[in-house]
Amino acid sequence: MNTNPNHKPKTDKNTNDQKPRKTVNLANEFLWALIGLLLTIFSTFLPAFTTNVPWTWSSDGVVSQPLGVTYQIGAVLLTGCLGGKNAGALAQIAYVILGLTWLPVFAHGGDWEYLKEPSFGYILGFIPGAWVCGLMAFRTRTKIETLAFSAICGLLVIHLCGLVYLIGLALFNPANGDLISLANLPSFMLNYSLIPIPGQLVIVCVITAIAYFLRLILFY
């Protein structure tokens, strides 16, 4: 035992900077999964656009410019940022099941024939993408840079799954050869991944800001 009256116990200087990992309770996870499912369905058919800067509205008016993508990716990542990994993945599992077995909730319809669509790999990628986004978004206290990084990681996972699926269609599905083959595979990669990325990054910025302020308002 140290009897020095001037002795002070050692403390970790980072203790005050580290807060417990944030979690979402089971009821809230289910609620966010339901919200995420509805958002994903409706945003599938909602084109994303941007406008000119607000300080030019008085002189030029409000001019909208399409981003060439829908808000669907934003709904997937926003669910992960707000509901966590389980809610994000559950919402997208339900979305895939509904689209394959019941409702035409995909961009070009639904049912099992959609497995042959080049875009289906990206839809499957919503599941691990939302899970990764939700996992990383709740590893530390709420910070806008953490949420942005989480959403970008989720987006990259979605595109990785989509690219793998495209390659699989080209290699192992001869019946689909009239649509996609090794010869035109690069053009599909360009159209489904490279071209949409800039617009999707704009959406990531938007949902990052929304998720940050909502988590501050909801105190988690």
Automatic annotation (TrEMBL):
Entry's localization field: Cell membrane
UniProtKB keywords: Cell membrane, Membrane, Transmembrane, Transmembrane helix, Transport
The organism's place on the tree of life at top rank: Bacteria
UniProt-recorded Gene Ontology molecular function terms: biotin transmembrane transporter activity
Annotated coiled-coil segments of the chain: none
GO cellular component: plasma membrane
Principal subcellular localization: membrane
Gene3D superfamilies associated with the record: 1.10.1760.20
Pfam families: BioY (PF02632)
Protein name: Biotin transporter
Annotated region (Disordered), positions in chain: 1-20
InterPro entries given in the database record: BioY (IPR003784)
Membrane topology category: Multi-pass membrane protein
Transmembrane segments: 30-50, 62-82, 89-107, 119-138, 147-172, 192-214
Entry's family note: Belongs to the BioY family.
Ranges of compositional bias, category Basic and acidic residues: 9-20
